[in-house]
Amino acid sequence: MLENKQKIYELVIIGAGPAGLSASIYASRYKIEHLVIGKILGGMATEAYEIKNYPGIENITGLELADKMIEHAKRSGALFLEDEVLTIDREDGRIFIVKTKKNNQILSRRIILAMGASRAQLNVPGEKEFWGKGVTYCATCDAPLYRDKIVAVVGGGDSAFSSAVLLANYTQKIYLIHRSENFRAQKAWQNQLDSLGNKITKILNNEVKEIKGDKVLRKIFLKNPYQGNQELELDGLFIEIGSLPNSELARSMGVEIDNKHQIKITNKGRTNLKGVYGAGDITNLTRLKQVVVAAAQGAIASYSVFEDIKTGL
Fold first, then answer.
1. What DSSP element (H or E) covers 309?
2. Residue 144 β-bridge partners
3. Last residue of a domain, one of 187, 207, 239
4. Are residues 13 and 89 in the same domain?
5. Looking at the 3D structure of the chain, how many domains does it have?
6. In a structure prediction context, what are the per-residue pLDDT tens digits for the chain, which is 313 residues long?
7. Of 239, 258, 274, which residue constitutes the final position of a domain?
8. Is 271 exposed, middle or buried (0-12, 13-18, 19+ CB in 10 A)?
9. What pTM value is reported for the model?
């Protein structure tokens, strides 16, 4: 049973990326007492080298934009807890009990799930062994470590192209490896990459099959030969092949999940569970996983919370 003296929040927002921060800003505007819990304030957006499609801001780094959102949320009245949620249970079908890695227990009447997504991995031999020793998933974090080195970027979407553009400021040579014939990146990114000339070499219809080295990464093995050789000597490998929703916690609560591990929400951000809402990259509502979309979904989820409080749901 719950202790009567323990504080009960009207809302707990789990996740402190653009979706969670936007949800917090709107919750504050609606005078909803809430707490934001997140492992990393700003979420995965902090890793973006450049964001050029956020309305009103022509060019900004992900870290700068995230900092602006965090400060906005704080000025609006948000309370933050930097922690990781491990379990969410429900007492008598009414109050959610949120337990965290740092042994915090928080009570809330409603929950917004905005945990975003994590970097997808290649799942090839050597990837785990050389993580942090040449294998990386964050160009924004690690690009300066590869000054005048030879690196490869794996992927064909916006994140792969933005990483390659950033790396061009530091590295000697970049291979862009993509498993298909055509890239998914926006044309603007493709044009920017093409302007870099010979510094970028594209390897299409190919995949990394194995990563080799000694104390650090030394080379990769490709599925198909490139210029007659399946080995490619490298100093660094940047893996940018998309992301996977952080939905295991939601699944354990009984939230409906689709076949892509995304939580199912309505266009108002509601899940199948009363009092549980979703927003951002963790949800199934759109394939367009962008900061502006996550922010919009966070606002919508908080508005639905506000509506449900008014109507007593």
1. helix 291-311
2. none
3. 239
4. yes
5. 2
6. 455 578 999 999 999 999 999 999 999 999 999 999 999 999 888 888 778 889 999 889 889 999 999 999 999 999 999 999 999 999 877 899 999 999 999 999 999 999 999 888 999 999 999 998 999 988 888 899 999 999 999 999 998 999 999 999 999 999 999 999 999 999 999 999 999 888 999 999 999 999 999 999 999 999 999 999 999 999 999 999 988 999 999 999 999 999 999 999 999 999 999 999 999 999 999 888 889 999 999 999 999 999 999 998 7
7. 239
8. buried
9. 0.82
